[in-house]
Design goal:
The complex is a heterotetramer, with 2 copies of chain A (about 375 residues) and 2 copies of chain B (about 400 residues). Chain A is built from 11 helices and 10 strands. Chain A folds into 3 domains: about 110 residues, Orthogonal Bundle (Butyryl-Coa Dehydrogenase, subunit A, domain 1), CATH 1.10.540.10; about 110 residues, Butyryl-CoA Dehydrogenase, subunit A, domain 2 (Beta Barrel); about 150 residues, Butyryl-CoA Dehydrogenase, subunit A, domain 3, CATH 1.20.140.10. The radius of gyration of chain A is 21 Å and the shape is globular. Chain B has about 400 residues and is of the alpha+beta class. Helix content of chain B is about 45%, strand content about 15%. Chain B has 12 helices and 10 strands. In chain B, helix 1 runs parallel beside helix 4 and helix 4 packs parallel to helix 8. Chain B starts with 6 loop residues before the first helix and ends with a helix. Classes of the chains: A alpha+beta (about 375), B alpha+beta (about 400). Chains in contact: A-B, A-C, A-D, B-C, B-D, C-D. At the A-B interface, strand 6, strand 7, strand 9, helix 9 and helix 10 of A face strand 8, strand 10, helix 11 and helix 12 of B.
Chain lengths: ~375, ~400, ~375, ~400
């Protein structure tokens, strides 16, 4: 058993952390969020240069062939710096899907460009009533000769209005909640019939409602097995969930540090409020949550790439459920310990709090993952 | 032991309900029920309607122009107006400064200010907290120096709710720096339109503007606006805090929000079924409902046993009331699933509808969850409330 | 709305409280528990003299015709004094059932004697697998001419080996979980075929497994409507649950007071441990639980007699669920604040803790009542 | 980053498992798995078996007669023995006094006592707590006065686990009353058979006898039994506490108890279905399982990062470990429904079976729930552990 990170991983972490600390100030983040696109091409290019965007891309397509543990290293730093850029959407989910299931042609056309930061990918999967259920797909892909016609509504698609390519799930067979009959299609955002209603998310990112209205795509748009994409979706969602856990750990680590700093300096009744035992124990609970979260996020990252789906699902659901609950608890304590300051827009901590809370709403909340954990164990 | 309302109380409830049904403007109610932003005019319109009816200060004693409602009547009024989606009554004048003026104010202050509050003429705000004095209120630094027939006030208040709309502010100020900190504090009524006052918004994490910093630079305040005696401000402040805490249980509003939550849980889907049918979610909702049921009874017990000015036991109402409020916002946010994520401040008004982005109730809820973290912080944080109970009730 | 107790209720409370304080010392309670029968006939007679045992008995049968609020008054004092005597079993449940549903002959033969303390009643309803479900009855009552033959196993029957008469539920029709087909029978403990395996309960009382092996009873043993006893069982179980809530409030009140006293006197680090803010806030949480519990127990008592079953069920389930959870929380805090002393047999507080915890296991635990609350609301 | 066990570790696990399968007496295992009472002889028999194999002190360094197991090997050993239902190893000699003797003992103490511990010759107990000094350990009052070549010890210890079986006790005693309280404490090894020692049982709320009061009346203790230097006892005690806290996470035992809980939940019925299928109960079990999974990883991280003596971070292991232990006892009790009520101490032995009174696993569980309230109290209460983390780790 070895808990140490490789030299490459340590270098990666240090160089990224250095970049984020120097370049990604809180004021800059604010400006990025308020920009038209909601993320910074300059930052994105810097990430490309650092090799981040091709981290998990296979080497033959210009990447580094990294593992989910490499993703953990990156995600944790991105969390610590509260980076809003679409790393999860484009690199973890988008690139991950193409790398796993793409045809050679798809890989060639998408992966090197994505790794260079020239092409932004996202996964458009959830639908208005699907909540977190991956098998619940109502969007249809009707065969028309050698082509498919897509029709449907994809909900809360991360960076759906900014991505160049959307990987869309649609039903090519079966009923709305059947495991069989789901297929993936790579479509261009600018295609006829694709509408994206862009909005901010409360955790500082962007998402969109994507409407597909008779979108005509060729058979070469199909990504992975026709009718049988659910296992692929489940696998990539787990990789994404593990990355979110790692990000949450990074967010939590910074939020804890900010809170500790605050209660050590804020004076009331003639002493720092951190002298009050009740607040001390609250800070200790936050610390325990963090340490336990680090542990389970590590486990999820190590298992996220596992070929054994049961092992992967168990670890990822455990971690995502844990982070959902511990993230909620830590956030509430952090805001409370900050007093009035904790609910201001001006304070970085409140933005960390929002992201940490809302990570629970991405790729399955704590309830969802506890239930999956239970159902899987029951078999 | 009889937990039924008396015939008179039941009749009063009908009267209030009928009045609210007939007079509460539908657009205002919709904003409240759908958690949208209330403008100054929304509050003002509703308070004017009540003032015209003589009910804005219905719980005030008759001698001060109120209706002399009993605590139970006042509870009924709260419950009925809250249920119908009436905005909360801005408490700073009605429930905070008014009792202090009634108890300690000069004849002129009573005559002048109470009638203006009762008729919804002045909008009041509260000048207590300062950047360096939150929980430790007595450490406040804003100075008032006597200069002939007025005071010169210098300093800063913060977390001042809706100060941007206010005509008047009641302030704790330091008039004597040579005595024990509690003893150097006085209670001043200050015209917000006075030269030297600047209001600066504090934007909260939901990007709303509800609280403010208020700066005082050589603000002239007539000595006639000193309440009671110089140096007795701390006594008046404690008196006020006791009054503040009864309403803060917010049972009426929480009952309404519970209904909203149930409504949402009926519409939201989980595995193709209503979320409200999910055993885990249903159990969590039920537990809040049970807590609220107990709290309502606790409020009634407090009202029955004490009449008006609640003792330190009232801190319980603050603690449980705010915990329940937060639990409700949390469950509402959770109910949305991924549709908790969209953040669309433009949806805080009624004008911009966009059915594309989730159900129409969704947009404000996550922001509201975050905003409501404040309720366990303000009005004396729940930690301070626990300290009060430990010391004053349990003798620890 | 009126929260005051009547003069009679106040007198009742005061005289009972005085008796318990003077006569029912902790050492005496210990001796009673260790006695062969597990309760004291002397105490029982004193209760009879004070009118407690006929409190809810109709006046025409030698009682006072009291309400569930009267029962609350008594139960709360019994809780405060941690009285083990079978008040709930015999007076609340047994007498309550007979008074509600008995024939004139049954009332005449049972009620006056029970009110005088000469006849101990209990309800033998639960079964090994029924958990808290009232409709789950497998015990059978087979017709044989004009008689019935009872066969079955009644589980954890309160005072099942001490009671003179057992009111036994049995199936006269329907399947094991059907609402219809349940009947009640009054049987004598000494009857042929009735076996009772007596044991202590962890909360200081007695219970028994009651085996019914071809027990032959006449038609006059039937209590209430044949096949239709479930509503009656539900009503009396709610009255019992409300009494348990009141008892729990009494237990909690004393336990809180003991804990407060302990942390005010126990010295560590040169001061009473009650000076530590974390323990102060724990004590405050115990106090809040108590106040909320008092409120909801009152509501349950007032509604327990209600003719409106929905209103009754809602209030009782709310209260029993609340007391289950708050009782658990308060107990755990009380023991923790007592430190090592909290887990000793010698300390009264540990016995209060056991009773307060175990009240949850009588007549439906918190989960059961939350689920009933939810199911009823759904309709 | 590699969370797989090495080939050597896997082989070690197989070796331990095979040994336990072949050598753990079935009656002892049954008592452990069914939560029945363990007699002195049960502990002794199993420890003798391990001693014979050379594994009783397998985690000790080779120089002291151990096998020099790595922390991971020791964890594997714990896990395998716990899973099979082996009794816990009585820690007072093996894991508590032994490290102190290794670090600070005299050559004679090492030679004499370590070998007797390793061979299961002496049963040790711990003389720390006193009636007046629980959390405030340093305020202890038991006096040891030097008198020629021995000390005369007078005073009282309490909460002394299994002192009724013990041959030896290690004690913190006050040898100097003139200095700061921490500086007047010494660490003595005392023969429990010495004249002047009285052991008095403390019966716990489950009516079991596990802890004791130990009285010292003019007990003569040879000076050779002083560990290290006079007045340095506090340092040794803190060293020891660090060691105590690693094992206290109890991951191996909690994994076994989780399995037992799942087994019980499969058998218990709710509405005619297995309780384990109930969504609410299943979710609560899963949450404990997830917490335990995280804790196991945290233990491994601590082991990997520090090797032997854990720092104050180890307080986390005590806090989370005991919270999980308590959650498991609570769920087991809850699972029983009304069958949690019967209290039958006679069922604590294997002899008296009575299938009439509930399922065979039921009888000990409620008593065990109450007994396990102790785990957040002993070994430094969880409040004290939080104080330690606040001060030593967070710098508050």
């Amino acid at each position: 058993m070895d808990f140490s990170f490789s030299e490459e991983q340590q270098l990666l972490r240090e160089s990224l952390a250095r970049y984020v600390e120097r370049e990604y100030t809180f004021e800059k983040r604010r400006a990025i969020q308020r920009s038209a696109e909601g993320f910074s091409h300059e930052v994105w290019s810097a990430f490309a240069e650092m090799g981040l965007l091709g981290l998990t891309t296979p080497e033959e397509y210009g990447g580094y062939g990294g593992s989910a543990v490499d993703t953990l290293v990156v995600s944790q730093v991105l969390g610590s710096g509260l980076v809003v850029e679409p790393y999860l959407a484009s690199v973890v989910l988008g690139t991950g899907l193409v790398a796993r299931a793409g045809s050679t042609a798809q890989k060639e056309s998408l992966l090197p460009a994505a790794a260079r930061g020239e092409l932004l990918l996202t996964l458009a999967h959830a639908e208005p009533d699907s909540r977190y259920e991956l098998a619940e797909v109502a969007t249809s892909a009707r065969r028309q000769g050698n082509q498919f016609v897509l029709q449907g509504h994809k909900a809360v698609v991360p960076w759906g209005a900014q991505a160049d390519r959307l990987i869309v799930s649609a039903r090519t067979a079966g009923g709305p909640r059947d495991a069989q009959g789901i297929s993936l299609f790579v479509i261009e955002r600018g295609m006829k019939g694709v509408g994206a209603r862009d909005y901010r998310t409360i955790d500082g990112q962007r998402a969109a409602e994507v409407k597909l209205d008779d979108v005509l795509v060729g058979a070469d748009a199909v990504l992975g097995p026709l009718d049988g994409a659910l296992p692929l979706l489940e696998a990539i969602a787990d990789v994404g969930a593990a990355a979110l856990c790692a990000e949450a750990v990074g967010v939590m680590e910074t939020l804890n540090a900010q809170t500790l700093e605050y209660i050590k300096t804020r004076q009331q009744f003639g002493q720092p409020i951190g002298r009050f035992q009740v607040l001390q124990h609250r800070a200790v609970d936050m610390f325990i949550h963090l340490e336990q979260s680090k542990s389970i996020a590590l486990l999820a990252a190590v298992r996220a790439d596992s070929a054994d789906a049961a092992e992967r699902r168990r670890a990822v659901s455990a971690a995502k459920a844990h982070l959902g609950r511990s993230g909620r608890a830590v956030t509430q304590m952090a805001i409370q310990l900050h007093g009035g300051m904790g609910v201001t827009d001006e304070l970085p901590a409140s933005h960390y709090a929002k992201r940490l809370t809302m990570i629970d709403f991405h790729l399955g909340d704590a309830d969802f993952h506890v239930e999956r954990f239970v159902a899987d164990a029951r078999g | 032991m009889d937990l039924a309302y008396t015939a008179e109380e039941a009749a009063f409830r009908d009267e209030v309900r009928d009045f609210v049904t007939a007079n509460l403007p539908a657009d205002i109610a919709r904003k409240v029920l759908e958690h949208r932003r209330l403008e100054k005019s929304d509050y003002a319109r509703w308070q004017d309607i009540l003032a015209k009816q003589g009910w804005l200060a219905g719980h005030w004693p008759v001698e001060h122009g109120g209706c002399g409602w009993t605590p139970v009547q006042n509870h009924i009024f709260d419950e009925e107006t809250a249920a119908a989606g009436a905005p909360r009554l801005i408490p700073f004048g009605l429930n905070m400064v008014a009792p202090v003026i009634m108890a300690y104010g000069s004849p002129w202050q009573k005559e002048h200010y109470l009638s203006r509050i009762r008729t919804n003429h002045d909008w009041w705000c509260q000048g207590y907290s300062e950047p360096g004095s939150g929980s430790d209120l007595a450490s406040l630094k804003t100075r008032a120096v006597r200069d002939g027939d007025h005071y010169l006030v210098n300093g800063q208040k913060t977390w001042t709710t809706l100060a941007q709309y206010a005509d008047m502010i009641f302030c704790l100020v330091r008039t004597d720096t040579t005595v024990k900190k509690q003893e150097g504090i006085s209670f001043l009524l200050i015209d917000m339109h006075s030269p030297g006052i600047t209001v600066r918004p504090i934007v909260t994490l939901d990007e709303e503007h509800e609280v403010n910093e208020v700066f005082f630079e050589d603000v002239k305040v007539p000595v006639a606006n000193l309440v009671g005696e110089e140096g007795k401000g701390w006594t008046y402040a404690k008196y006020l805090l006791g009054h503040e805490r009864t309403g803060i249980a917010g049972v009426g509003a929480s009952k309404r929000e519970l209904d909203t939550l149930k409504h949402i849980a009926k519409i939201q889907r989980k595995n193709g079924r209503p979320l409200g049918d999910d055993p885990g979610f249903a159990a969590r909702m039920a537990q809040v409902e049970i807590d609220l049921l107990a709290l309502e009874m606790t409020v009634m017990r407090v009202l029955a046993s004490r009449g008006k000015a609640p003792g330190p036991e009232a801190s319980i109402l603050k603690i449980k009331g705010t915990e329940i409020q937060q639990a409700l916002t949390e469950l509402m946010m959770e109910a949305l699933g991924p549709y908790a994520l969209p953040f669309r401040p433009e949806a805080m008004t009624l004008d911009t509808e966009d059915e594309l982005v989730g159900p129409d109730y969704a947009a404000p809820l996550a922001a509201r969850y975050f905003n409501y973290r404040k309720v366990t912080i303000y009005g004396g944080s729940n930690e301070i409330q626990r300290n009060i109970i430990a010391q004053m009730v349990l003798g620890l």
